[in-house]
Amino acid sequence: MAHDLHTLTHLPTLEDLLRDEGLDGLLAALDDALARLPAEARARGGDGDGPEVSPRTLRILRTALQRDAGLLRDHPETLFQGLYNRLRWFDAPDAAAHFQEEQGPWSRPDAHLHALAEHWRRERAAQGTGRPWLESLLPLRDELEGVELALRHEAQVLQVAYSPTGDRLATGSWADERNVLVWDAATGERLLALDGHEGEIRALAWSPDGARLASGSRDHDARLWDARTGELLHAMTGQEGQVTAVAFSPDGQVLATGNLGWKVRLFDVASGEKERTFSGHMQSVLTLAFHPSGRWLASGSSDNTVRVWDVETGAEVARLEAETSVDSVAFSPDGEWLAFTDFDGIALAETRGWTRQGPLRGQGRYSSVTWLDAHRLGLLSFNRVEVLDARGGDVLHTHPYESDSHQRTASFQPGGTRFALSGADGRACVSDLTAPPPPTLRAGQRRVQGLWGHPGGRVVVARALRESVAIDSGGRVRPFPVDPEEAFGQPWRDSPDGARMAYPTRKFGRPPLLGVRVLDMEQLVPALDLTAPPLAASGTGHAPPLDERPVAFSPDGRRVAAVLEPGAVRVWHLPGGALAHTLRGPRGPIDLVDFTPDGAHVVASFPEESRLLVFSLASGARVLDTHVISNPTPAWAAARAAPLLAVGQDEGALELFDLSTGQGRTLRGGDSPIIGLGFTDDGTRVAACAMDWRVRVFDTRTGALLHELPHPSLAFAVALRDGLLVTRANDLHTRIFDLETGALRADLDGGSEPDDVTRGRFWELLSDGPVSFHSKLDPTTPLTWFEDSLEEVLILQDGLVVGRGQTVKDFLYVLRLHPA
């Protein structure tokens, strides 16, 4: 059946095509319609009463589908969610505030994609049959126009290289494994993932026939791969330094490598054996290029020279001076010219006499030069791609892009107008030189470094380098400047009502003045500074600086406890800020400060001595001093509605204390150290995670061992509530057990905090793939998924989700979860 503009902008039709024919079938239907429709075609979208649509609508729809292709193939039910979030922010009038440019798709007189998305939303609401979905309250990262493909990686992309025919693209990244990837350059489908390098990829090159791919890495290795099968053919290991350049001879029989050990090596491609080493550079070799004849090899170095070598004899034929490191060299297709980067442009040298010609070409510093043909150069600068007339020096075309503060690499598609660009955000982007660049997200300049808040709370702070953002459960996003006195890298804590946040501060001086600042979250201004007189220092020196300065609010929000110096916890009254207690312990760092759930006690952990101390807030007296396992975190828990506290010990002992009487007893079910603990609210059950890969459940009244729950890997966190026991293990699985019977109810692929599962209305599972979101009503069945894998997530009241991206690294997501 042939589809037209009307049917292909009708959401039920798109859903039917995706369900019945898969994503490829849906894309094929769009391609077929685009091939048939004249550019001036117009129709009413949706069910016939939506906005006016055109072939451009279908092109943008197709791009949006490609951006979410991985998720849609596995979870086609997320179609509306993905399309809505991308189209709604594409050209809506309120999108302009989120971009750096004044003009954009929202400025066009035919802006309508946002209206189509809202039309679909109203249709779903009227039908009342929609599935749960996530609404993005901020624009997403991937562009729908101006960037043809956005190839996502698990780490920063460092290298890109088109195959000689331009049908494939190789990329190299900073990932720990499988860091050389090969893609279909037309569709963005990943074809190969090559595993073997133990460090980031510093260089890539294709053989002239496209049959082989060479890679160089920080691990001092160059590797040669079969570019069709991914088979490793040869590993040229143990080079003098990081391999920063690789190049094939024109006949494909020789591979040249350059490294940070100042050497250039030649290898036989068939055998992988070294043929020759060129020595002469006085610093790192950064780039290589063979002359089209194969007779010469040019190398550029951080010693500010280009050297030309005779491939047969190894003799240095020429030395060309530059004013700075030479990052890129390239011979013209006819072999008459050598181009290389210099301090403020591109230098040209004739190859007949190896003489440098005339002034520099171009307009600034470039990191890459490529001959597009005998007369044009493709150049990469820190914020633009240029096409330059090599002889006249005129800039023929400029394509700006967003700088990400890292040196990028570019590769130009042979015979075409496409180019690929590496990126620190984990994407390799493919664009057309002649297409207008997309607008730049302001959020792209604000990489999130951490989220501060608590699940089910009312507010979260997304911490960035220059400007932080406060997000409340109503979806309000407000930026505020970074406090210059904030002790960077230290934790923030929010009060239970979300009205305040507290964080450690440091005022410079001799000695520096340490304190805690309380922030008014409504006004986003400091409300109070909490300080205390310094402790008496032993000897004549000052107290050593602390790696950790934990802060905590009491359950009623009326007290703040924090560490300013080693060996003591300070407690202040709010709102006035009067110092209530200085609670002293061993002279050393403190890695945990918290209040018991009833607010009657303060708990502190001293890792150097593996001790846990508990203090009474009424008197400031120490009521408990006991051994605790401190690595990686203190193994302790307190019941919410009973004065019970449990501590894990080395040889399988669980120490149980009644804080109202000071009495303690030992429960034991095994001989392995206990590293995680959890109580039921009433304190009648306690569960202990042990290093023998078992979780044991005890009756605290009788001390009886009720269950011993085996795990296929180490469980390190546990929570008990409403008849469920939930664990988190280091195999990135979350398991749910029946608390009464011990039966396993669900084994979920992904990690979640057990407390979130047992207490939150909604919670998430994090893994290396898309994030799934779940409801307390049915914990085993996902409500929906989100396309990016996330490093960190906080779900606030009313289903407001704040996330920090993993695939799109450190990107800020603000989402609203609609249950149905």
Describe the structure.
Helix 1 packs across helix 2, helix 2 packs across helix 4 and helix 4 runs antiparallel to helix 5. Helices cover about 10% and strands about 40% of the residues. The chain is globular, with a radius of gyration of 31 Å. The longest helix has 26 residues. A hairpin with a 5-residue loop joins strand 58 and strand 59. With about 800 residues, it is mostly beta strands. The protein folds into four domains: about 130 residues, no CATH class; about 280 residues, YVTN repeat-like/Quinoprotein amine dehydrogenase (Methylamine Dehydrogenase, Chain H, 7 Propeller); about 130 residues, Methylamine Dehydrogenase, Chain H, CATH 2.130.10; about 120 residues, Methylamine Dehydrogenase, Chain H. The chain has a four-stranded antiparallel beta sheet with strand order 3-65-64-63.
State the strand order across the main sheet: 3-65-64-63
What count of structural domains?
A: 4
Structural class: mainly beta
- According to CATH, the homologous superfamily of the largest domain is YVTN repeat-like/Quinoprotein amine dehydrogenase
State the main characteristics.
globular, 820 residues, Methylamine Dehydrogenase, Chain H, 65 strands, 6 helices, 4 domains
In a nutshell, what does this entry contain?
The protein is mainly β and 820 residues long. It has six helices and 65 strands.
Secondary structure elements and pairings:
Elements: H1 11-36, E1 43-44, E2 52-53, H2 55-67, H3 69-74, H4 79-88, H5 113-127, E3 133-136, E4 149-152, E5 157-162, E6 168-173, E7 180-184, E8 190-194, E9 201-206, E10 212-217, E11 222-226, E12 232-236, E13 243-248, E14 254-259, E15 264-268, E16 274-278, E17 285-290, E18 296-301, E19 305-310, E20 316-321, E21 329-331, E22 337-342, E23 345-350, E24 355-361, E25 368-371, E26 376-380, E27 384-389, E28 395-400, E29 410-412, E30 418-421, E31 427-432, E32 448-452, E33 459-464, E34 467-472, E35 477-481, E36 493-494, E37 500-507, E38 513-520, E39 525-530, E40 551-553, E41 559-562, E42 568-573, E43 579-584, E44 592-595, E45 601-606, E46 611-616, E47 622-627, E48 636-638, E49 644-648, E50 653-658, E51 663-668, E52 674-679, E53 685-690, E54 694-699, E55 705-710, E56 715-721, E57 724-729, E58 733-738, E59 744-749, H6 754-759, E60 762-765, E61 771-775, E62 784-786, E63 790-795, E64 800-805, E65 812-818
Antiparallel strand pairs: 1-2, 3-65, 4-31, 5-6, 6-7, 7-8, 9-10, 10-11, 11-12, 13-14, 14-15, 15-16, 17-18, 18-19, 19-20, 21-22, 22-23, 23-24, 25-26, 26-27, 27-28, 29-30, 30-31, 32-33, 33-34, 34-35, 36-37, 37-38, 38-39, 40-41, 41-42, 42-43, 44-45, 45-46, 46-47, 48-49, 49-50, 50-51, 52-53, 53-54, ...
Helix pairs in contact: 1-2, 2-4, 4-5
